[in-house]
Amino acid sequence: MSIPFPMELENAALVGERRDGQGIPLVLIHGFGGSRHDWQPLVAALPQSLPLITYDQRGFGDSTGTPGIAFSHSDDLLALLDRLGIEQADLCGLSQGGAIALHLALDHPGRVRRLVLISPGMTGWPWSDEWIERWKQVSRTARAGDMDKARDLWWQHPFFEPVRNSHAANLLRASIDAFRGQQWIQDDQRREAPDADRLTALGAPTLLLSGSLDMRDFHLIADQIESAGQNVTRIDHAGAGHLLNLEIPAVIAQEITHFLDR
Q: How far is 123 from 103, CA to CA, in rounded Å?
């Protein structure tokens, strides 16, 4: 049974859930625009004995933050681990959550036993013109005050196409509809140096899960992590896209379980 928790940080309040079990806990870190609820299909497929922590990042889901205050999602995650009394954890991050998990593993390697990256982003990544243009289109619409249209544009983004055509389409649509969208208007994340410049320092055993139908930026990020990390196991799923947690949760649950048990 998961136990909900609120957690007060400086200029933020995080909301999450903790499921007790035996061994090192696995912390699940959602992607941009999502929340802890996006992990439900994966959680249902993971062993019930595995201790889990899910939480909403600052400004997403039920978590809040003070506007105009610069912050780091990775620092928030570190503070969460400290407040929960967790000296070492396994991290599993999706997309933006992958960037957060990777950044923490590079900043504080002793706090991360094993790392699972699902279609990860990367701190300081130089996004392609295609990605930037689509982002600007959504952002301009949100800043013009039409948040419903901005959500529709996000729903139609090419990297969601495999999910839109799958059994998980309703879950994705509900997640997008619940997103407040403030980050399209103003994102207060602190600027960081590119993590690509220090990937050779990544020593934690890492499981890197990719989809062959994902966008080129994410393929390039995965390629760099695979080539530069010290102990990276990559599994590329043919016919899958970006949101493997919704598209093939049972498949990646087996891969994650096997990796954590090694």
A: 7
For residue range 76-111, list pLDDT tens digits in order: 999 999 999 999 999 999 999 999 999 999 999 999
Judge contact between 250 and 45, C-beta under 8 A. yes
Are 62 and 35 spatial neighbours (Cβ–Cβ below 8 Å)?
yes
By residue count, the chain amounts to 262
- Cα angle: 131, vertex 219, 243; to 5 degrees: 80
pLDDT in tens, 197-219: 999 999 999 999 999 999 999 99
Residue entry with tokens 């990020």: 221
Which two three-digit tokens encode residue 21?
Answer: 């079990």
Q: How buried is residue 169: exposed, middle or buried, by Cβ count under 10 Å (0-12/13-18/19+)?
A: middle
Mean pLDDT estimate for the chain: 97
Q: Would you say 11 and 66 are in contact if contact means Cβ atoms under 8 Å apart?
A: yes
Establish if 39 belongs to a structural domain.
yes
Task: State which residues form the domain around 57.
Answer: 2-126+188-261
Q: What is the pLDDT of residue 2?
A: 85
Distance CA 114, CA 206 (A): 6
Radius of gyration, CA atoms only, the chain: 17
What's the predicted TM-score (pTM) here?
Answer: 0.97
Provide φ and ψ at 190, rounded to 5°. -70, 135
In a domain, 242, yes or no: yes
Establish if 111 belongs to a structural domain: yes
SS3 readout for 154-184: HHCCHHHHHHHCCCCHHHHHHHHHHCCCHHH
Find the farthest-apart pair of alpha carbons in the chain and give their distance in angstroms, rounded.
50
Which CATH number do you get for residue 122? Answer: 3.40.50.1820
